[in-house]
Amino acid sequence: MIHAIDYEQTFVTNLEIFVSKADKYIKVYYSGLSEDKNLKEIVEGIKNLAMEIDIQQLEIDYQHHCEIKDLIADCDDLAWW
Question: Do the domain assignments include residue 73?
Answer without folding.
Answer: yes
